[in-house]
Write a structure and sequence with these properties.
Radius of gyration of chain A: 21 Å
Shape of chain A: globular
Largest sheet of chain B: 6 strands, mixed
Strand content of chain B: 25-35%
Largest interface: A-B, 41 and 35 residues
Oligomer: heterodimer
Strand content of chain A: 5-15%
CATH superfamily of the largest domain in chain A: Cytochrome-c3 Hydrogenase, chain B
Number of helices of chain A: 15
Structural class of chain B: alpha/beta
Distance between the termini of chain B: 42 Å
Distance between the termini of chain A: 54 Å
Number of strands of chain B: 8
Order of helices and strands of chain B: EHEEHEEEEHEH
Helix content of chain B: 10-25%
Number of helices of chain B: 4
Strand order of the largest sheet of chain B: 1-2-3-6-5-4
Radius of gyration of chain B: 18 Å
Shape of chain B: elongated
CATH architecture of the domain at 4-102 in chain B: 2-Layer Sandwich
Number of strands of chain A: 8
CATH architecture of the largest domain in chain A: Orthogonal Bundle
Largest sheet of chain A: 3 strands, antiparallel
Strand order of the largest sheet of chain A: 1-2-3
Chain lengths: 370, 170
């Protein structure tokens, strides 16, 4: 009688290792499988932990600003806005309107760039090899604008505490509008490739369903929450910069599955183009720096400020003890909290759907681990 | 600008239901914060999450700050958000070294990983947490880095030597 082998076991624990082409970074997921169905999972993270919060206690407020870009390295501008605004809130300083509108233009360009990476890699994970080339081509145009503005494509350090360092270069407004005109038909092109594609629908409809109640209980924010039919966007409910002065819509999904989150993010790209056009129109000459002294010494106190980053609610909790170094900087990472929902979303699905759900959560391990 | 004392109907209601629980209520830069005794933490959080308490259904963040010079060194910070009222609230719990803090995972499941991170970085032990173990650092690491007495250049040399095969990671 042959001995029983592993093939007879009904439950297998398999490792989706830190080195994997579809986990978007160094993420390890331990899957408990019954054949190909997932019964449960556990995420092991921390492979990219760099101790950013500890470093913050040893740098001045201005010196810490470049570190912040390196957390969500795909969307550095929005990371920078969140930190710089938190310190400005602590100082109680007002930013002139020209700086506000420039920050908004760059933030929305960054949102488009981040969603383009998400779209390209998500489609690539599910087998569609064409969109990734197109989305990276469009992303090049955004990165060219960033490079002309602040010298860097990826880790931009675009803003300073109190306003902007660099004024807009000649032709910035023209290039932004040119990009908006160039980009809008491209979104239609992506939709033509994917939205009514039979294979795409089969792979994303009904996969990774997250109800609104579960989403709020798990603290999920951003497009994942909006895909579950909760119309909540920090730019609308607690506006920062000048978001209350521009018009845009907040798209929501109905069912909370992967397909709805895809539609939400594509619509968000269209709304970002709308915001950019309005901000370019509203740009007026003026100062770009508020009243901030050479040495930044905020009063004793603590402040929590959050913005709508492309991934969700990015919050900064800054505690000041009156010296030039912050006493504690806590970064509330949207990807970390969203990743908690992975276990709930993949129960009962196949292993291939795990890849789809990791892609739809749009995580960046630099932000998860800090 | 300094933190100013805060008074509101919510505060009166909380003081009526949980007498003696709140030791401080201030507001600074438009965010109110309450310092709560840890015995009352879970019932108060349950009340705040319900409709009558303000419907604070979203736990945005849970973290800690280390004040080693104080008698009780850790301040555990909770940031809550209410969709209905569209406002935020901060709760603080003061805990000393070695004290166990009740876990709020029964009220908001978000707190699962957030509390694991506080345990990992500060060494605060939560009571009632379903799975309290290190999350960002490797499992065998000794030490809690975000404490103020943990030097920024220090690493757990024993773990590095056992697992990476080198003398020191510095």
């Amino acid at each position: 009688m042959p001995e029983t082998t592993y093939l007879d076991a009904s439950e297998l624990v398999i490792n989706m290792g830190p080195q994997h082409p579809a986990t978007h970074g160094v993420l390890r997921v331990k899957l408990k499988l019954d054949g190909e169905r997932v019964l449960g999972s556990e995420c092991v993270i921390g492979y990219l932990h760099r101790g950013v919060e500890k470093i913050a206690e040893n740098r001045t407020y201005a010196q810490f600003a470049p570190y912040v870009d390196r957390m969500d390295y795909v969307a550095a501008v929005t990371n920078g806005i969140g930190y710089v605004e938190a310190v400005e809130k602590l100082l109680g300083v007002e930013i002139p309107p020209r700086a506000q509108h420039t920050r908004m233009i760059l933030a929305e360009l960054q949102r488009i760039a981040s969603h383009l990476i998400w779209l390209g890699t998500h489609a690539l994970d599910l087998g569609a090899m064409t969109p990734v080339f197109y989305t990276f081509r469009e992303r090049e145009e955004v990165l060219k604008i960033f490079e002309k503005y602040c010298g860097a494509r990826l880790t931009t350090h675009a803003f300073r505490i109190g306003g902007l360092q660099y004024d807009l270069y000649d032709g910035f407004e023209k290039e932004c509008l040119q990009f908006c005109d160039y980009f809008t038909p491209k979104i239609d092109e992506y939709e033509r490739l994917l939205t009514t594609n039979r294979i795409w629908l089969n792979r994303t409809k009904g996969v990774g369903v997250l109800s609104a109640q579960d989403a709020i209980a798990l603290g999920v924010t951003g497009p994942v929450l909006r895909g579950s039919n909760v119309r909540w966007d920090i730019r609308k409910v607690q506006p920062y910069e000048a978001y209350d002065k521009v018009e845009f819509e907040v798209p929501v999904g109905q069912h909370g599955d992967t397909y709805d989150r895809y539609l939400v993010r594509v619509q968000e790209m269209r709304q970002s183009v709308r915001i950019i056009r309005q901000c370019v129109e509203r740009l007026a000459p003026g100062p770009i720096f508020g009243k901030v002294g050479k040495v930044i010494k905020p009063p004793v106190g603590e402040v929590y400020h959050s913005i709508e980053a492309p991934k969700g609610e990015l919050g900064y909790f800054v505690v000041s003890d009156g010296t030039t170094n912050p006493y504690r900087v806590r970064v509330r990472p949207p990807s970390f909290v969203n990743l908690q929902a992975l276990d709930l979303m993949i129960r009962g699905h196949l292993v291939a759907d795990v890849v789809a759900v990791i892609g739809t959560l749009d995580i960046v391990l630099g932000e998860v681990d800090r | 600008m300094k933190p100013e004392p805060w008074s509101s109907s919510l505060l009166d209601e909380l003081q009526k239901r949980f007498p003696g629980a709140i030791s401080e209520a201030v507001t600074f830069r438009h965010l109110s914060s309450l310092t709560v005794a840890k015995e009352y933490l879970v019932p108060m959080c349950q009340f705040l999450k319900n409709e009558e308490g303000g419907a604070y259904t979203l736990l945005t963040d849970e973290t800690a700050v280390d004040y080693p010079k104080r008698e009780k060194r850790f301040e555990i910070i909770y940031h809550l958000y209410s969709f209905k009222q569209n406002n935020r609230l901060r709760l603080k719990v003061i805990a000393g070294e070695g004290e166990r803090v009740p876990s709020v995972t029964s009220v908001w499941p978000t707190a699962n990983w957030l509390e694991r991170e506080v345990f990992d970085m500060f060494g605060v032990v939560y009571e009632g947490h379903p799975d309290l173990k290190r999350i960002l650092l490797p499992d065998g690491w000794v030490g809690h880095p975000l404490r103020k007495d943990y030097d920024i250049l220090r690493q757990d040399d024993a773990w590095v030597q056992a697992n990476l095969g080198i003398k020191s990671a510095q």
